[in-house]
UniProtKB/TrEMBL annotation:
GO CC terms of this entry: lamin filament; nucleolus; nucleoplasm
Main localization, broad class: nucleus
Occurrences of domain Iron hydrogenase small subunit (ranges): 390-446
Family of this protein: Belongs to the NARF family.
Assembly, per entry: Interacts with LMNA and binds to the farnesylated C-terminal domain.
Name this polypeptide is given: Nuclear prelamin A recognition factor
Gene name per UniProt: Narf
Gene Ontology MF terms: lamin binding
Native organism: Nannospalax galili
Location of region: Disordered: 17-36
């Protein structure tokens, strides 16, 4: 990432070209914090690469920089140590949620099957003192289902006077941050209002699960293990506490690479353990994913739903056509020579910039676009698929892509637990609470006049 435009705000991240080594900021361990000593003091300090927060208006504000410093192993181990030392009345329940795109990294890193990697990671986290380990796939179910409904609604509402299309996905925090802060109001109305899986998971943990455990949200410390650094910035986003009585949905985000580094340098005895579920004493014995090549699968699932709901067409296999490059794909639904639906996947900022230019010129023919900041998708998040010198580890990424492709697919509509949660937690699929908990609004700003001149 090379920033060539700076604002008047103090920039707290380093700049780099593709040939420069990544500049990192050490996140001190609890052993260094206020002279604390504990059983975790031997664990390695993880590094937060501030230059890898992909999409802001080319800087992080001073306030955000201070908050970002809390998104590290320092706060995580601080809570672990407090839980072992202080008065039990001050203890917090530690919950870790793992993104499905992180599991292939752990499987490849430790030469395990994806199920064994999940059990090993869960067992390690619990050996540290984590109480519950969840999978965020159920949160992605909600994000996809709400995106499906919103697309159908936008399709019916779209006209020359009311341009509701294309709908652009909102699951990638790097892309959303860039759209809000740099592109501004011409683009933000096109963003899907469904919350990202991480934000939905925050509500599930701090609202639904907290109620099940008879705990106030502030008594739960929620950590997300994710493939990219932008998830750290997403955890700081204003408005994510809606419906949680002021509590933040996600307290800390650790990248897969940070967690792997801790695992590699730990001498703790680990017993493998199955991932927990949000439903009592049940354990998750299988690993599932959605139908995405390297993502949560919004494009594939929304496409199938729209084809069926709008045109009565049942789509089994989805054919992706690579266009200008390997990170821009097109999917179409055609009947009698007419294109009924035209969807696209745009990964990486070069493709995003091309998309934005065509959209502003009115020459963008798509109804829906799955937008991701990272080339090759979420598996290529800068928090995991990297060499020690900060470059992409292509061999590791290819291995991870193969592992991810072999994980069984579970359509979000098929989850009985999701349907139960709609009724028990959200008071129905079309209730006001669904809008409050599962949807969001966007910051409206004037676009930067030279925002499209940024070199990515």
């Amino acid at each position: 990432l090379r920033c060539v435009k700076l604002t008047t705000k103090e920039c707290s991240k380093k700049t780099k070209t593709d040939d420069q080594e990544n500049v990192s900021v050490d996140a001190p361990s609890p052993a260094q914090d206020n002279g604390e000593k504990g059983e975790f003091h031997k664990l390695a300090d993880a590094k937060v690469f501030l230059s890898d927060c992909l999409a802001c208006d080319n800087c992080v504000t001073v306030e955000e920089g201070a908050q970002l410093s809390q998104q590290s192993t320092k706060d995580f181990f601080h809570i672990l140590n407090l839980n072992k030392k202080c008065d039990t009345s001050k203890h917090q329940v530690l919950v870790v949620s793992v993104c499905p795109q992180s599991l292939p990294y752990f499987a490849a890193k430790f030469n395990l099957s994806v199920i064994d990697a999940s059990r090993r990671l869960c067992g390690f986290l619990k050996s540290l003192g984590v109480h519950y380990v969840f999978d965020t796939t159920i949160a992605a179910d909600f994000s996809i289902l709400e995106s499906q409904k919103e697309f159908v609604r936008r399709y019916h509402q779209h006209s020359e006077e009311r341009r509701a299309l294309p709908m652009l996905t909102s699951a990638c925090p790097g892309w959303v941050r860039y759209a809000e802060r740099v592109l501004g109001s011409p683009l933000t109305p096109h963003l899907c209002t469904a919350k990202s899986p991480q934000q939905v998971m925050g509500s599930l943990v701090k609202d639904y699960f907290a109620r099940q455990q008879n705990l106030p949200p502030e008594k739960i410390f929620h950590v997300v293990v994710a493939p990219c650094y932008d998830k750290k910035l997403e955890a700081l986003r204003d408005g994510v506490s809606t419906g949680l009585n002021g509590a933040r949905g996600t307290d800390c985000v650790l990248t897969s690479g940070e967690v792997a580094q801790i695992m590699e340098q730990s001498d703790l005895s680990v017993k493998d353990s199955a991932v927990d579920t949000l439903f009592g004493d049940l354990k998750e014995v299988a690993v599932w994913r959605h139908d995405g090549v390297s993502s949560d699968g919004h494009l594939a699932h929304v496409f199938r739903h729209a084809a069926k709901e709008l045109f009565g067409e049942h789509v089994e296999e989805i054919t992706y056509r690579a266009l200008r490059n390997k990170d821009f794909h097109e999917v179409t639904l055609e009947k009698n020579g007419e294109v009924l639906l035209r969807f696209a996947a745009a990964y990486g900022f070069r493709n995003i910039q091309n998309m934005v230019l065509k959209l502003k010129k009115g020459k963008f023919p798509y109804h829906f676009v799955e937008v991701l900041a990272c080339p090759r998708g979420c598996l290529n998040g800068r928090g995991q698929a990297q060499t020690e010198d900060g470059h992409a580890d292509r061999a590791l990424l290819r291995q991870m892509e193969g592992i991810y492709a072999d994980i069984p697919i579970r359509p979000p509509e098929s989850s009985a637990h999701v349907q139960e949660l709609y009724q028990e937690w959200l008071e129905g699929t079309e209730s006001p609470k669904v809008q409050e908990v599962l949807h969001r609004t966007y910051q409206s700003s004037e676009p930067c006049t030279d925002s499209l001149d940024i070199k990515w």
